[in-house]
Each structure stands twice: as structure tokens, then as C-alpha cells.
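pipeline/complex-builder :: batch 7 item 3
reading input block
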Amino acid sequence: MAGTLTTSAGATSLRFFNNRRLSPANSTEWTSNVHIRNQNYTPKASLHAVIDEPFVESTTMKTTSLYDVLNVNRNATASEIKSAYRSLAKRYHPDASGSNRNDDRDFIEIRNAYVTLSDPTSRALYDLKLRTGFERRAGVYNGAGVYAGRRWETDQCW
Amino acid sequence: MKVKLKLKGIPLESGVELERKAEQLPWSSEIFLMSEEVGYTVASDSETTATKEETEIEIAIGIDIGTCQCSLAVWNGSEVELIRNTRNQKLMKSYVTFRDQSPSPVGGVTNQLSHEYEMLSGSSIFNMKRLIGRLDTDPIVHQASNTLPFLIQTLGIGAKPFLAALVNNMWRSTTPEEVVAIYLVELKALAEARLKRPVRDVVLTVPAAFSRFQLTRIARSCAMAGLHVLRFMPEPAAVALLYAQQQLHKDSIADSGSEKIGLIFNMGAGYCDVAIIATAGGVSQMKALAGSCIGGEDLLQNMMHHLVPDMDTRFASRGLEEIKAMGILRVATQEAIHKLSFQPSVQIDIDLGNGTRVCRVIDVQEFEEINKGVFEKCASLVTQCLHESKVAKPEYIDDVILVGGCTNIPKLKSIVMGICKRNESYSGINPLEAAVRGAALEGALASGVNDPFGSLDLLTIQINAHSIGIRADGNSFVPIIDRNTTLPARREMLFTTAHDNQTEALIVVYEQGDEQQLLLGYFKVVGIPPAAKGVPEINVCMDIDASNMLRVMAGVVMPGSGTKNPVVPLMEVRMPTADDGHGLCADALYRSLGSTLDLVTLHNKLNA
């Protein structure tokens, strides 16, 4: 089964989809910057689960779609998205004067959201996924917690 | 240096005080532990008072170490101020003179040259920015060893070149790091005298072409001089920050609606950088960055070789006569190039001694022909940057910002303006001070200064100038973090073993430079459970934080083994780890290990 290697404010942790952590990660730091999207993974049996991007998963929890990350509406215009990105960068970028400069992570998330939503094609794809994702996920999760075989292929573009 | 400890809201200064307080508190054993941990900082901080520490932030100063000139600037609370030396200069010559009589070498910050020839007598070392962190196989080092009056010996084996200054008719060895450190000590003393406070944190501007290895050398020089590099800033990023501030002043009403695309072209004596930025509301997002080690020094060397074609052999012995002749040639050529920026032709008359006299007229056309290669390289950097920035048409560029001494040269100006299809360049910026002013702004930002009037409501979102990756798929370079990736950045990629029952894998990290790949470091992932090739998953993650520190992490996972745990502890390595002679090291690694510890790319990027 696969895991992802990520960094959290100076400490490394190998995270797994069932949210089991190994490695000597700093536990206080960990809880201080909770990322909701990492909290709700169900164990999966697919060999290709590694492909799954965390934020794709998060769409099942209404809390963090990319639009929520940027704090904009689903039908925001390109310039609204751009200015949302800039104003968030001013708050969360480690170099910005007002930011709490302990964590690069927030800005990386914001940046990732912006990269997807600022490009019309990837935004359309994401919107599609957002809509279909809800229905399908709901069904899958009610089952045995195992994904349909083809699922990873559609998510590969992430 | 400052260590602040707060216990129940009481700021504590020294270990002594801490221990005293600890006696009054019930959890004293724990506090004793803490006081021991911070014990070594006690002595240096003992004079600072509690209130001072609470209220005063040390504002990092901005330093622009140029190949030819240096400058210092600092945020004074309301604006950026350039610091002048005792001779009232804002731009100070970059060189260090080694002398016999004086106790220590002196640099261009304090020293007064009676004539430029003094700098060219072999006792002064300059052009350090082009030499630092380069190996003796580097063509830049070879050119320098042929054309500079001091001694640079190269063996061409991938090790550090030997550098020496002439003191009392004796070649005395030194290193580029030492020379830069001596210079920085002078800058530091100057800043401390002007600001009347100790100076430790600095923001240094660096060329985009600088490798991570070169950055570590500069950081080492800073450490030798007692300075701490808070941020390295590519010169265009510093200029972008200054531009963002100017735009913020200009259109404070129309905030984020009007995004401006700027092209920054920076060429000084040593390096050329190009960047495309998109600026709105005080935020400059860098879209593309490119750089190369070409500059005024190349124009000068080409011109010298044109005037004295046999100069490399003629001056090879570096006797006193040769050094003197080299100095004369250099000064005369420099003057000629300067004049050619303003007049159509120039008369050159140089007496090189031994009856050799160079006497001729050179016109602009000839000068441009001699330096065709340099101009072509500049043009290709601009086009490359435009292409990578995905700005669809050059017409979309709102401002062309020219900085650096070389942008005075009409040909260079016309090349850049031609590609951008513009007639006028951006005029609001001083081409020689832009970088250092930007660095001082970044110094204030990174030190956490808040300006009540919003003048520091700024940000440059930087990008990575070089791609970083590992060796895999049979000795080829597989990028993990691509160039022009926004920083801070984190990318991961999955690899697998190349052989059956392979239990170890070598992670060799490279940075893709302008022309070559540079070894940053390497480490082994061990304890891979024996399995058929292609089965174990090796996750390699690279992370660059806001201060540009690179960490490489690796872990092994066996799919389908029932356990989701990594089989061995993870590896986390700060890069670069390779030291001087990393060129030799890369060869040795491949020679002795070959493909036995190879990796193969398993999937495409996980989070591209």
C-alpha cells in the first residue's frame, strides 16, 4: 500500500491514507496545523491509490474544495480568482509582512488551488469532477471502502 | 542570537535569571532542562534588556554584491536608504587588496585607490562573484585565469581552482570565500557605524544563474563575516519587489484590477538575468526566470583578445612586466567600451612595453561584431523567458525594466526593446540601485516589519531558477522540481528498483544549471526488501522553503505487503551536501557504482 511523503513545518512525516503516521514527526506541530483533508481517509486496497491527490479526496468533505481554499464562489470570474489568490498570498506567504511565518504549507495549498482554477481547462475538469465526485464517492464509501478499478485513471491528471 | 523564553508571560533573558525563577516555580526540573539547552546563548545576550528585545526587531539590511560594485541599503522606517561609505559613495568597488605591511587585507569599502592600476597590480583580487563556487573545469574560470592580473591556477580535474594574490613579489594563496568574507566584514562594519547597532541579518541579491553550490559558498562567506543570510534573492526578484512598490503608489485606487506584466532585464559586469513578472496590488508573481554568466566582463575579455590576440600566451608567466601590461590593456579597453556607448568610434593607443604598441580605431559596428556571441545569448535569454512565461505576445508586456550597468550599451537596449516590440523602457527605476533597494525591502518584510502606511504591503512570489531532480532511468536526469516552480514548493515522485532483489538505491541529486548539471549530494536508501524489479515503491520528495532551503526526503513502501508502514525509517537530507570537488565526486559515483543502485521512474509526478 502506498503512502505519501510530506513535510510539515520542519518535521517530516510519512502519511498514509488511513491517517497513520510514522517517523518522528513533531506531534505538537502536527496538531497545530490540522489539515482537514487528511483526516478522513478510508483504507483502500487499490494498488494505484498512490496517484490520488489529497485534495481530490477532500471534495467528499464539503469543507475544502479548491474554491473554499481560495475563498471564492463556484462561479467566480478569472479576475476574482486572481485577486483572491493575491490577497491570500499577502496573508499566507512566508515572506509577506503580516504572515505567521512558521508554515509554508498554507501557501502551497493556495498556490495549488490557484494553478488549477486559473487555467480554464483544468478548472472545467475540476468542476466536472466536483459534481460527479459527490455522487460516486457517496456510493463507493457506503460499500466496502474499495474503489472501482478504473477510478485512478480518471484522477491521474492530478 | 536572540533567544526569547516566555514563562507565564514573563520574558526571560538569561540562563541565570531563568534558574533563579525556576527555583520559585514548582516544575523546576523541567525548567532546568530548558535553561541548559539555551545556556550557550546567555553570554552574548546578557546586555540586552527585556524591553529592547520586545520592541525592536532587527531589520535585515540589503546587500548587492556585484562583480564590479557593491551597495548596501536598509529600510529606515519609512523608506529605503542607501548607506554611503566614508567617501560618500553609494556604490563601492568590489575588490580586496592583500598587503604586507598592514595587518589585514583591505577592501573597496574603506580603501581609496590612487589609480585604477593599483587594483590591477596583482595584489588585489576582484571579480569574485564570477569565481566563487566554480570548479577548475569551468570555462568561466579558464577565461578568468587568462585575463585577470592575479593568479588563478586550474588543473582541469573538477576540483577547486587555486587562487593567489601578489604580495611583495610572492604569490599568497587565498580563496574566493575568504575574499568575499573580508569584503563583507568591511560592509558590516560600515553598516554598523551608520546604523549604530549590531548588524547580523542580511538579504543578499544573487544572480539567477547561481547554483545552489555557489549559494552555499556565499553563505559560508557571510558566516565567516558574522552575517546571517535571511534570504537569497535573485536580482530580478528584488527589482520586482521595488517595481511592485512603485506600482502600488501609482494606482492605489484601482487595486487588483490592473495587472501589469513586466520584463526585467538585468545585466551587470558578471551576470545577465531576465524575468517576467505580473504585478498587481503590491504583489509581484514571477512567471519565468532565466540567467547566465555573461556580462560586461565578457565584453571586456572579447575586446582585449581582439586588440591583443596572443594575450593568453603573452601574459601567461605573470611576471611584474606582464601584470603591468595586462593592467594597462584592461583599463584602456574598459574606457573604450564606455565611450562606445556614447560615440560612434574610439581611438585606442596602448603601449604594452617591450616595443609592443596597439594603435587603432574601433567603431561601434566592430565592437558589436566582436561581441556578437554575448548579444545573441542575451537575446536568447529574453526569448526563452518570454516563451516560458506563457505571455502569449510580447505586446502584452506593459513595462520593460532595464537594470544593471550594461544596459547603457545601445546595442543591448535595442535587442531587448526589439524583442519586446517597445520603444521606451520603464523610467522610474535607477538601474544601478534597483537590486539593492529591492533587497532592503525584502529585508524589512522578512524581518517582520509592519508599515502603518502600507508601504510594505508588498510581496514577490518567487520561482525556482533551476530544475532539481535525481539520476534515474539509466543515468539520466529526472526533474522533480521543475524550473519556474513557485516557491515555497514541494513535489514528490515515485521510483522503483531497476534490478531484481535490489536492496539499496542511490539517490543522486542534481541541479540543472545553465549548461551543465551540478551534483548537489547523494545518499543511499537501504533495507529495501528483496523483490522483483519494479515492485518496491521509493517515494522521493523535494521541498524548498521560503528561505530557499532544499530538503530531499525518501521512503520505501512495499505495495501489497499487507502493512502500510514504510519498511525502513525515512531519510531526510539537506542539500547541497557535496563539497568542493563535487565534479570529481559525480564521476567517481558513476564509475564505482555504475547502474547497480539505479532507480526507475514509476509514475508521473504525484502532484504536478
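note: Confidence is low (pLDDT under 50) at residues 1-62, 135-158 of chain A.
queue -> next item
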